[in-house]
Design a protein that fits this description.
Layout (H helix, E strand, L loop, with lengths): L1 H40 L3 H10 L11 E2 L5 E3 L2 E11 L28 E12 L5 E4 L3 E6 L5 E4 L5 E2 L13 E4 L4 E11 H4 L4 E5 L12 E4 L2
Parallel strand pairs: 1-12
Antiparallel strand pairs: 2-3, 3-4, 4-10, 5-9, 6-7, 6-11, 8-10, 11-12
């Protein structure tokens, strides 16, 4: 009886060892698969060079599409002009803190920023010089730092405030404003940027009339400094 019991224990032990070896081999094979997949997905030299050219934001402004602040920019009949730019720790007059979108920035009860961020306050006129009504996407503008290839490598986050919302119009989307044929409107727009962006010598106001998330074939920009 003892011999039979001993034999059974040995068989169970051998089966357990065999099972553990199979598990270890499966883990080794899976690890090899992951290593192979990682190597196969490594970018080529051409892809690396292209990434360096267009920057992490995948946005490049052609040199001929860069304008001065006193210029007008025409996107197929939608004209941007009369742009002015200011920087401040405080909100513009008649703009309250409750009207502004904040993320992790710190501001007092009057909206004055008390960290290393600043408001960029932008006034701009947009005109619809076409025969049809047009919905302009105000989120398509942002302040950005361009590198030597005119690629965006740092920028403001989304638009934090726009004038006229639910006051003179009935827009459902905060970022859109409807312009009738041959109508023009002046907008006050506010962004929040880190001090490091303001210190850059390559600061631009980059415009994509189709919005921030849309195609970037028509990027144009105002040179701020």
């Amino acid at each position: 009886m003892k011999k039979i019991l001993t034999l059974c224990i040995c068989i169970v032990f051998l089966v357990g060892c065999t099972s553990n070896k199979k598990v270890e081999k499966e883990k080794e094979k899976e690890s090899e698969k992951r290593t192979i997949n990682f190597v196969m997905e490594t970018e080529t030299e051409e892809e690396s060079a292209e990434y360096e050219r267009i920057g992490a934001f995948n946005q490049v402004v052609d040199e001929e599409n860069i304008f001065e602040l006193n210029d007008s920019i025409n996107f197929d009949g939608i004209i941007y002009s009369n742009i002015s730019v200011e920087y401040s720790k405080e909100l513009p007059k008649n703009v309250s803190k409750d009207e502004v979108t904040y993320f992790e920035e710190k501001a007092n009860d009057k909206g004055k920023l008390i960290d290393d961020n600043y408001y960029i306050i932008c006034k701009i006129t947009i005109e619809n010089n076409t025969k049809k009504a047009y919905e302009v996407d105000l989120s398509g503008g942002k302040f950005a730092v361009l590198d030597e290839n005119n690629a965006v490598y740092d920028s403001s986050q989304e638009l934090r405030y726009r004038s006229g919302y639910l006051q003179t119009e009935s827009d459902k989307n905060y970022y859109f404003s409807t312009l009738g044929s041959n109508e023009k409107k002046e907008f006050l727009l506010c962004y929040i940027v880190n001090e490091s962006i303001l210190k850059s010598d390559n600061l631009y106001y980059v415009l994509n009339p189709n919005g921030e998330a849309a195609g970037i074939a028509k990027l144009m920009a105002y040179r701020v400094k």
